[in-house]
Design a protein that fits this description.
Length: about 325
């Protein structure tokens, strides 16, 4: 394809937002990788598309991701591949995860919900009392994500350090297209996309106004190579179904005390439990899980526990 926009027109939609751009342009915007334009190197995305003389074609990583998705679109393997690409090729995501990989570091929002409130005032709180405001436009008086990327620029580049155009390089700096500093415009929106992937995998955990990295889950999901790179420490203990239910029930509990059954089911599937309803029923029959209350939800709440629509919302107790 001559351009990533053309790729979007052909493979995603033919609906136009104006005479020049496809509606799917934002989908394809981060699909190319590192490109040379005259004397400058431009990093455009995670490299699902390769630049060739005639335009763009699917890269090896793009083909691998596509094959995994077609094989099991409802599974987690393709999500793991996407998560791995983000953690190895997206400098801002890499830097944020490096920051919250520090012991007891947590990302706090200004409202009691995931990615809620004023994101420019969201803070990463560290165990030594220091703070970082990752999505703030200015890095004064408290550092933001741009200053953190600047301090870790060569590390943040990740797998792109092996790119042929960087074979003789030992360091780098990130600059903007028009200014010396790269833009922080909509940075929280861009990072949220990456964080949603890691949240789906259970690597990021969220409760009320905060989220943090589950290092055990990170090691289990992505392996020791990334664990060593980010400094993750695993306890080595594999959690039981009961322990996962306790964790996820705590994460997913609404203000009413109910849990959306389909969300609990999805989280358990991500941890390798093929039939969560059957496993919950087993624990319930053994008296180790008690369903204390159930209720109907809405269509967005999905299939209820045991395929019962009156159990879309559940209150459970683990004994």
């Amino acid at each position: 394809m001559p351009s990533s926009t053309d790729f979007g027109r052909v493979h995603f939609t033919d609906r136009m937002t104006d005479d020049r751009h496809a509606a799917a342009e934002k989908i394809t915007r981060n699909m190319p990788g590192m490109e040379r334009r005259k004397e400058r190197l431009i990093l455009r995305g995670i490299g699902l598309l390769d630049r060739v003389d005639t335009g763009y074609r699917l890269s090896k990583a793009g083909k691998e991701l596509g094959t995994a998705y077609r094989s099991a679109p409802d599974g987690t393997e393709w999500v793991k591949i996407l998560g791995h690409l983000l953690l190895t090729r997206e400098p801002r995501t890499r830097t944020l995860i490096k920051l919250i990989s520090e012991p007891n570091a947590e990302l706090y929002f200004t409202d009691d919900e995931w990615w809620g409130g004023s994101l420019q005032r969201a803070t990463i709180n560290f165990s030594d009392g220091k703070q970082l405001v990752p999505f703030a436009k200015s890095e004064h008086p408290i550092p933001n994500l741009r200053s953190a990327v600047r301090e870790n620029s060569w590390w943040a580049l990740g797998e792109w350090r092996d790119h042929e155009d960087l074979s003789a390089a030992t360091d780098c700096r990130f600059v903007g297209q028009l200014k010396e500093d790269f833009s922080m415009h909509d940075i929280s929106l861009a990072i949220r996309s990456s964080m949603e992937v890691l949240l789906h995998l259970g690597v990021i955990r969220s409760q009320a106004d905060r989220c943090w990295l589950d290092q055990d889950a990170a090691v289990q999901t992505f392996g020791m190579t990334l664990a060593n790179e980010f400094g993750w420490q695993s306890t080595g203990k594999k959690k039981s179904l009961r322990e996962w239910i306790i964790q996820f029930a705590d994460d997913l509990r609404l203000d009413t005390g109910f849990i959306v059954a389909s969300e609990l089911r999805d989280r358990l599937r991500q941890q390798g439990f093929d039939n969560p309803d059957r496993e919950i029923a087993r624990l319930e029959s053994e008296g180790r899980v008690v369903i204390e209350a159930t209720d109907y939800g809405q269509s967005r709440h999905g299939v209820g526990l045991y395929d019962d629509p009156s159990k879309q919302l559940i209150k459970l107790r683990v004994s």
